[in-house]
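Standup notes, protein team

Yesterday: finished cleaning the Haloarcula taiwanensis set.
Today: Helix-turn-helix domain-containing protein structure.
Blockers: none.

Input for Helix-turn-helix domain-containing protein:
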Amino acid sequence: MSNRARNDSGKYTDKLTEQDVLKAFDYETTPEEPMLTATEITDALAEHFDIEVSSQTVRRRLGEMEDAGIVASKKFGASAVGWTALVGPRLADDVAAEADRRLEEEEFVSLDEV
Protein backbone atom coordinates (compact mmCIF):
# COMPACT_ATOMS: atom_id res chain seq x y z
CA MET A 1 0.00 0.00 0.00
CA SER A 2 1.32 3.42 -0.87
CA ASN A 3 1.79 6.24 1.63
CA ARG A 4 0.72 8.74 -1.03
CA ALA A 5 -2.83 9.82 -1.73
CA ARG A 6 -4.41 10.13 -5.15
CA ASN A 7 -6.36 13.22 -6.24
CA ASP A 8 -9.75 13.20 -8.02
CA SER A 9 -8.09 12.57 -11.39
CA GLY A 10 -6.14 9.59 -10.03
CA LYS A 11 -2.72 11.23 -9.89
CA TYR A 12 -0.53 10.80 -6.84
CA THR A 13 -0.30 13.77 -4.48
CA ASP A 14 2.33 14.39 -1.84
CA LYS A 15 0.06 13.92 1.15
CA LEU A 16 -3.37 13.08 2.44
CA THR A 17 -5.41 16.28 2.68
CA GLU A 18 -7.76 17.38 5.44
CA GLN A 19 -10.56 17.46 2.86
CA ASP A 20 -9.95 13.79 1.99
CA VAL A 21 -10.35 12.81 5.64
CA LEU A 22 -13.43 15.01 6.13
CA LYS A 23 -15.07 13.46 3.05
CA ALA A 24 -14.57 10.01 4.61
CA PHE A 25 -16.41 11.17 7.74
CA ASP A 26 -19.17 12.58 5.54
CA TYR A 27 -19.68 9.21 3.84
CA GLU A 28 -19.29 6.90 6.82
CA THR A 29 -20.67 8.55 9.96
CA THR A 30 -24.26 8.86 11.10
CA PRO A 31 -25.87 10.77 13.98
CA GLU A 32 -26.11 7.43 15.81
CA GLU A 33 -22.44 6.55 15.12
CA PRO A 34 -20.46 9.79 14.69
CA MET A 35 -17.02 8.27 15.34
CA LEU A 36 -14.62 6.31 13.13
CA THR A 37 -11.32 4.56 13.76
CA ALA A 38 -8.26 5.32 11.66
CA THR A 39 -8.69 1.93 9.97
CA GLU A 40 -12.32 2.73 9.08
CA ILE A 41 -11.20 6.05 7.58
CA THR A 42 -8.44 4.29 5.62
CA ASP A 43 -10.99 1.80 4.26
CA ALA A 44 -13.48 4.57 3.40
CA LEU A 45 -10.82 6.53 1.51
CA ALA A 46 -10.00 3.45 -0.58
CA GLU A 47 -13.62 2.45 -1.16
CA HIS A 48 -15.20 5.81 -1.96
CA PHE A 49 -12.32 7.86 -3.38
CA ASP A 50 -9.71 5.33 -4.56
CA ILE A 51 -7.18 6.88 -2.15
CA GLU A 52 -4.71 4.26 -0.99
CA VAL A 53 -2.88 5.25 2.20
CA SER A 54 -1.78 3.43 5.33
CA SER A 55 -3.61 3.66 8.64
CA GLN A 56 -0.41 5.18 10.03
CA THR A 57 -0.66 8.03 7.49
CA VAL A 58 -4.31 8.55 8.44
CA ARG A 59 -3.46 8.61 12.18
CA ARG A 60 -0.70 11.16 11.58
CA ARG A 61 -3.07 13.40 9.59
CA LEU A 62 -5.81 13.01 12.24
CA GLY A 63 -3.34 14.13 14.93
CA GLU A 64 -2.51 17.25 12.92
CA MET A 65 -6.20 17.91 12.35
CA GLU A 66 -6.96 17.49 16.06
CA ASP A 67 -4.26 20.04 16.91
CA ALA A 68 -6.01 22.43 14.47
CA GLY A 69 -9.45 21.83 16.03
CA ILE A 70 -10.88 20.10 12.94
CA VAL A 71 -11.46 16.66 14.51
CA ALA A 72 -11.66 15.29 18.05
CA SER A 73 -10.65 11.93 19.47
CA LYS A 74 -11.79 9.71 22.31
CA LYS A 75 -9.94 6.71 23.71
CA PHE A 76 -11.82 3.48 24.23
CA GLY A 77 -10.02 0.88 26.32
CA ALA A 78 -6.26 0.50 26.26
CA SER A 79 -5.55 1.32 22.62
CA ALA A 80 -8.71 1.97 20.61
CA VAL A 81 -9.29 5.56 19.48
CA GLY A 82 -12.44 6.93 17.88
CA TRP A 83 -12.40 10.13 15.82
CA THR A 84 -15.16 12.57 14.96
CA ALA A 85 -15.20 15.52 12.58
CA LEU A 86 -15.92 18.93 14.09
CA VAL A 87 -16.39 20.55 10.65
CA GLY A 88 -17.71 19.40 7.28
CA PRO A 89 -15.76 19.03 4.05
CA ARG A 90 -15.35 22.08 1.84
CA LEU A 91 -17.57 22.16 -1.25
CA ALA A 92 -15.92 21.50 -4.60
CA ASP A 93 -15.25 24.72 -6.53
CA ASP A 94 -17.94 24.04 -9.14
CA VAL A 95 -20.55 23.18 -6.49
CA ALA A 96 -19.70 26.29 -4.46
CA ALA A 97 -19.93 28.48 -7.58
CA GLU A 98 -23.35 27.02 -8.44
CA ALA A 99 -24.56 27.56 -4.86
CA ASP A 100 -23.36 31.18 -4.98
CA ARG A 101 -25.08 31.72 -8.33
CA ARG A 102 -28.35 30.34 -6.99
CA LEU A 103 -28.09 32.50 -3.89
CA GLU A 104 -27.50 35.64 -5.97
CA GLU A 105 -30.43 34.81 -8.26
CA GLU A 106 -32.57 33.78 -5.28
CA GLU A 107 -33.04 30.28 -6.71
CA PHE A 108 -33.38 28.56 -3.38
CA VAL A 109 -36.02 27.07 -1.15
CA SER A 110 -35.92 27.33 2.62
CA LEU A 111 -35.84 24.13 4.65
CA ASP A 112 -39.30 24.99 5.98
CA GLU A 113 -40.67 24.78 2.42
CA VAL A 114 -39.05 21.42 1.65
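Follow-up from PR in the comments: The chain has a mean pLDDT of 84.
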